[in-house]
Amino acid sequence: MLGALSVSVLAFIALMAVTVFAKAWPSFAHNGIKWFFPGGDVDQQLGAIIQGPKDPAHYNYYLRAWPLIWDTIMTTGLAVAIALVVSVLAAVFIVELAPTSVRRTIDPVVRLLAAVPSVVYGLIGILAIAPWLERAFISEQRKHSVHEVVQLTGSNLTLAVLILALMITPIMVAIVVGALETVPRSWTEGSAALGVNRWRTMWRVSLRTVRPAILGAIVLATARALGEAIMLSMVGGSRAFPVNPLDGTTFLFEPVRPLAATIIVYIDGISVVPLEQTLYAMAAVLLVSCAFLSLAAWAVKQPMKKYGIRT
Amino acid sequence: MAGEPHVLPSPAAVRKARPRDSVGSWPLIDRVAFGLCWTVGIGLCVAAAAIIVFMFVKGIAYVRPSLLIESPQAGASEATSGGFLDPLVGTLLLTASGTAIAAPLGVATAVWLSEYARPAALARAVESGVETIAGSPSVVLAIFGLFVFSRPFLAFLSQTSAGGSVFGRSFLTAGAIMAMLALPLIVGATREGLAQVPGHVREASYALGKSKITTIRKVLLPSVRPNIAGGVTLAMGRIVGDTAIVVILLGATLHLEGAGGPPILSTLRGTGATLTSYVKYNSPAGEGNAPEKAYAAAFVLLIMVLALNALVTRLTSGREGRSDRFLAWAWLPNWRSR
Predict the structure, then answer these.
(1) Pick from A204, A180, A92, A197: nearest CA to B44
(2) Which of A1, A111, A155, A169 to probe by mutation at the B interface, max B CB count within 10 Å?
(3) For residue B52, is it within any domain?
(4) What DSSP string describes B77-143?
(5) pLDDT digits (tens, 9 = 90+) for A112-142
(6) ipTM of this model?
């Protein structure tokens, strides 16, 4: 009886995977591998899908989703890179360097940052930080330099990446701190006995020992960042524009809209069958990415078992 | 042997020659790293303080008691758009329905995984299944739910339009998918508790002639009640804060719109809003665009989430073990305070 209930969890996942792929298939089938290629304005293509013929034999599926995928890669990659540096330093601070009183403050702080709902992050970003970013960094000259391809506003890549990094940092801090605390004391004490200072002991001994945990934290944070939809649909700017690093620093202020945010933005049109199938195709891409990340998380956990360290 | 006579240094000199490991004596690069660690630590505190202070300032400026008891209106300006009674009720309803589904399922799964787990291969599969759900984006869960609950045989959970197509969006369907979001947290917390119950407790119960299922019901479950409570509270926090599932599966209508029939069932089968979808609707990125209302609702939302979070800390404080680890897996770090 209990077993049957538990197995229903498995049935749920199997059903989810099958459904999402079955629904997504027409979109992939019509576009082929070019689904993942660049080519044209995604918003126009999605608009054309909504406006397309109502006859099932002539549904319009044309989509080149590269801008969405590229924006997903950029936001996730940059946010995880920032969060990685911040969280490793913060974890060392919490475990080794902070005096007890500071440590007692920073524990709830990290929990709090993890608990704030994404819509609140989005609201603060769009109402408080975006106008300031626009005044401070987006000069007329900068606007003019790209005015033919895109309009710059305060809602842009920088804002999206910074808030996303703030959202995933607590997860990474928690995992790295958890792992650092399980490093055998005799190892760090041995290092200290050799006259190595506290920072270098952390850097050369503890952080090396927990490398798999850091990788695990990266994987989990990436999965979280990939799936973040609401906050990014609010602060990324309203256009599916592939940010272009060739634009120099201006690229930091170009609008982004990753896959998950695009699903949210177009959800109202889901009663249109071809659009529905296109959105399922985006969901399928996300699902596959997350499945690979789960697999990676499992793989990086294995070396930790050797030391008896549980991440 | 010629030379200086060997003189032992005085104890004071020894102490002076071997100073305590102070940061000042570290190599430059280590001192820079030390400074960076402090900067990041303090920076995180400042960021959190800034968020809290900002939201409190905005919240106190815009929250009025009347907002909590008025229904939203489709007004063009801040003055005419009403309060957020309906979203508030929606949040409570959705949290209740999600938890009601997730708690029994989660506890049952955890008990099975910890106490039975036969066949082993199946148990491993269920375990990784729970982790997969924890790793799936809520957007994907939500649009999958929309498909499943639009099937005709599940029409009783939501409304059916005149044309016969099932709407699929209601408190019940959103609650069911929210339960999936909450499941890993409850499973994790319960398993954590069960793992800490020593084996001899079970054996003592068996020695008294109790069956396995009686042992679970009368001995194990009561002893892990605080863990279950912690997991459920954590899960409630997740449900209260999620927006994607509400936007996709609850219809995100401004009012609670019943589906007809008996009063409570009508509301549960109908669509509605929660505080999260109300905030999104009233932000500049939504159609409502009433920032004052958005700030006020976000303030109330934040208070709810923080209260739940504080409750979790209270419920789990003083408990040793791996709870920290599992909660971190499930996105909410909650390591034991040292």
Answers:
(1) A92
(2) A111
(3) no
(4) SGGGSB--HHHHHHHHHHHHHHHHHHHHHHHHHHHIIIII--SHHHHHHHHHHHHHHHHS-HHHHHH
(5) 888 899 999 999 999 999 999 988 888 888 8
(6) 0.88
Size of interface A-B (CB pairs under 8 A): 266
Beta strand extents in B164-278 (DSSP E only): none
A244, A133 contact by CB (below 8 A)? no
Cβ–Cβ gap A263/B328 under 8 Å:
no
Say how far apart CA A36 and CA A20 lie, in whole Å.
18
Q: Which two tokens stand for residue A265?
A: 């933005």
Tell whether B153 lies on the interface with A, counting CB pairs under 8 A. Answer: no
Contact list in B for residue A103 (CB cut-off 8 A) is 338
> For residue A176, what are its two tokens?
């790295």
From residue A93, how far is each of A102, A104, A171, A205 by CA, in Å?
10, 12, 16, 15
Which residue in the set A19, A106, A234 is minimally distant from B44, CB to CB? A106
pLDDT of residue A308: 56
User: Crossing angle of helices B291-316/A100-115, nearest 10°?
Assistant: 130
- Contact across the interface for A197 and B30, Cβ inside 8 Å: yes
Question: How many domains would you assign to chain B?
Answer: 1
Distance (Å, whole) CA B54 – CA B51: 5
Model confidence pLDDT, tens digit, residues B266-300? 888 888 889 999 998 888 888 878 888 899 999 99
What was the pLDDT predicted at B334? Answer: 32
Give a yes or no: residue B27 inside a domain. Answer: no
> What's residue B332's pLDDT?
37
b/e burial code for range B188-207 (CB count within 10 A of at least 16 → b): bbbbbbbeeeeeeebeebee
pLDDT confidence bin for B94, thresholds 50/70/90? very high
> Alpha-carbon distance B335 to A120, whole Å?
24
Classify domain A33-49+61-306 at the CATH class level.
mainly alpha
* B144: in domain: yes
Contacts of B83 (CB under 8 A, 6+ apart): B66, B67, B68, B69, B70, B71, B72
Distances (CA, A) of B147 to A216, A287, B89, B169, B322: 32, 16, 26, 10, 37
Cα B232 to Cα A154, B203, B316, B325: the distances in Å are 39, 28, 12, 17
A157-180 and A211-227 helices, crossing angle to 10°: 140
Looking at the complex, does the CB of residue A298 fall below 8 Å from at least one CB of chain B? yes
Can you name the residues that pair with B72 across neighbouring β-strands? Answer: B82
Our measurement of the distance from residue B94's CA atom to the centroid of its chain's CA atoms, rounded to an integer in Å, reads: 14
Residues A12, A4: Cα–Cα separation, whole Å: 12
Q: Are B227 and B193 in contact (CB under 8 A)?
A: yes
What is the rounded CA–CA span in Å between residue B114 and residue B196? 11
Show the domain range for B209: 82-329
User: Is A184 in the B-facing interface, judged by CB distances under 8 Å?
Assistant: no
pLDDT of residue A287: 92
Chain B CB contacts of A296 under 8 Å are: none
**Do the domain assignments include residue B31?**
no
- Which CATH number do you get for residue B239? 1.10.3720.10
Judged against a pLDDT cut of 90, whether residue B100 lies above it is answered with yes
Rg (CA), chain A: 23
pTM of the shown model: 0.88
Facing residue for A199 by CB, picked from B30, B137, B291: B30
pLDDT at position A209 is: 87
The phi and psi torsions of B166 (rounded to 5 degrees) equal -85, 135
Residue B217: how many CA atoms within 13 Å on its side-chain side? 6
Hey, what's the torsion of the CAs at B207, B212, B216, B219, to 10 degrees? Answer: -10
